[in-house]
TrEMBL record:
Belongs to the class-III pyridoxal-phosphate-dependent aminotransferase family. This is Aminotransferase class III-fold pyridoxal phosphate-dependent enzyme. InterPro entries: Aminotrans_3, Aminotrans_3_PPA_site, PyrdxlP-dep_Trfase, PyrdxlP-dep_Trfase_major, PyrdxlP-dep_Trfase_small. GO terms for molecular function: pyridoxal phosphate binding; transaminase activity. The keyword Nucleotide-binding does not apply. The keyword Membrane does not apply. Keywords: Aminotransferase, Pyridoxal phosphate, Transferase. PANTHER family: ALANINE--GLYOXYLATE AMINOTRANSFERASE 2-LIKE, PTHR45688.
Amino acid sequence: MSTDLMPNRYRPGESELPRRESELIARRDKVLGASYRLQYRRPVHFIRGEGMWLYDPDGRAYLDFYNNVPCLGHCHPEVNAAMADQAGRISANTRYLEPKLVDYAARLVGTFPNELDRVVFTCTGSESNDLALRIARCASGKEGVIVSTYAYHGTSAATAAVSPNLGDAVKLSPFVRMVSLPGPAGVPEAQAADFFEMQIRSAIMDLKRRGIGVAALLIDSIFSSDGVWVDPPGFVAGGAAAVREAGGLVIADEVQPGFGRTGAYMWGFERHGIVPDLVTLGKPMGNGFPIGAVVGRRAPMEQFGATSRYSNTFAGNTVGIAAAEAVLTILQRDQIPQKALAVSERLRAGLEKLAKQRHEVRAIRNAGLFFGVDMGAEGTPAAGRRAIAVDVVNAMRDDGVLISTTGANEDTLKVRPPLVCQAEHVDLFLASMERALIRVAG
């Protein structure tokens, strides 16, 4: 595992910067907390966005193949108009009667399996996961949580305590157990489901023996922070069943794979053929406006509601609902997931062609428009693989294309463009990546 919490970042003195940016960084450092990081060796400075593009103060355009938050592209005019219209009327909270809140809630749960028919709104994915953990612990009467070995589920105290991705200095809860994924462990796909279930059952047994018990299995069904380990579809099902047998709930963190990101499905868990007890939503829900949600089964929702208060002033506010309503309308009306799936096939084919030409591309994994591309030929030491990945990311940044890295060793390229990506954008990305690989190889 990389000891650098963010290898793809700016380090003072490493790169020569224009005066405008260096002065802005100096001003940042005087007022912002030390936990902030700037991405890329030469930080990017943007003043506006439109669709697939971000623009710096000099008018240079950067192709965005990294940001999944604006799932419909930057500054979508229809979403912006919906927010502006509602902001010009009233921004109210869920303690007042509001028909648009109810209308959107009904539409949203209508995209889920019938068993998932209740929703509670939040502002962020972190809040969603925090609330889901509270509901699971209330419903199960237990405390234990099972996560993957490099999972990230949020920034609150509760979610940071179940997020191994945040680094050794961020201590995990003693109630957390980590399980390995079959892909990083080198387990053949035919044995993946049995391997994962065995890992889950071992974690359950340990939690039981220590008098903790299992409250929840919390998984991002695309395992983005672990390195985008998406296959084989369905490998998580046996583990999910084992958790339910032990009295725990299954929580699907859909902040990354949700809202049609996988193309073939609206929700990532559907790809694995499971129906969770709780589903958490965030970032793409409002195309950049902070709104999230927990969608779940009626029984645990009612049990929690009968014994606990959950009041969140901004969660489900009318401006956020207007943004979310517009996003869902556009996704469904314009068949965005289906179109994204077709574009992902073009991107996959292009990457496979590139892999045949360049030995630096070790493996390609994807579900729809979320790709993990492993860097470094077989046998390359971990530090060397990580260096290649970071070099490629920064070479592409200099070429005007944005991506980043992921995985325990940060040697996997994270490629997740907005869902409005088109064929011409794919071709520009592939050409830039080829130039970057040639440049990195020297």
